[in-house]
Specification:
With 120 residues, the chain is mostly helical. It has a single domain, classed as Cytochrome Bc1 Complex, Chain D, domain 2, CATH 1.10.760. It has 5 helices and no strands. Helix 2 packs across helix 5 and helix 4 packs antiparallel against helix 5. The chain is globular and about 50 Å long. It starts with a helix and ends in a 12-residue tail after the last helix. The protein binds heme C (HEC). Heme C (HEC) binds next to helix 2 and helix 4.
């Protein structure tokens, strides 16, 4: 019952304000992409903008939206990059577990769009 009320309140609140839907609530994301987003928010967001229309907290770090809209970037190239930590820029002094790489790539490619222009 209380769950029903919470959902009803959420529906009313989002309907009433027409606020943009936070990325983590976007229902069109696959389960993997949603895990990728959650992981990116924990592990990447200190440097990178991990959702759309944002500039990165660390200006040296391209936003994930910029990265995914570069020519030639695909789910496959993202996985390849993340699998080999020797590719990483010096700032990214860590490894990403194999299980997370697929989720991250699945999430990042959801921000591809035709006619993309970087946020200035
Ligand atoms: C401490 C800061 C920092 C963190 C945390 C970080 N990055 Fe980065 N990342 C950078 C910087 C800086 C660059 C750009 C380097 C350059 O262009 O020379 C970059 C570049 C990238 C690129 C583009 C590489 C290319 O081909 O140009 C990808 C993809 C990427 N990061 C993914 C991630 C993911 C996924 C995470 C989280 C698991 C993450 N980063 C966390 C600093 C960071």
């Amino acid at each position: 019952m209380s769950r029903f009320i919470a959902i009803a309140a959420l529906v009313l609140a989002t309907g009433a304000t027409a606020a943009p839907i936070p990325a983590q609530h976007r229902t069109h994301l696959s389960a993997g992409a949603r895990r990728g987003l959650a992981f990116a928010q924990q592990r990447c967001a200190a440097c990178h903008a991990v959702t759309e229309n944002r500039t990165s907290p660390n200006p040296e770090s391209p936003s994930f939206e910029d990265i995914t809209n570069r020519p030639g970037v695909t789910r496959f190239t993202l996985r390849q990059f993340l699998r080999d930590s020797h590719n990483y820029p010096a700032a990214m002094n860590f490894r990403v577990e194999a299980a997370r790489i697929r989720d991250l790539a699945d999430y990042i490619v959801t921000m591809k769009k035709a006619g993309y222009r970087p946020v200035m």
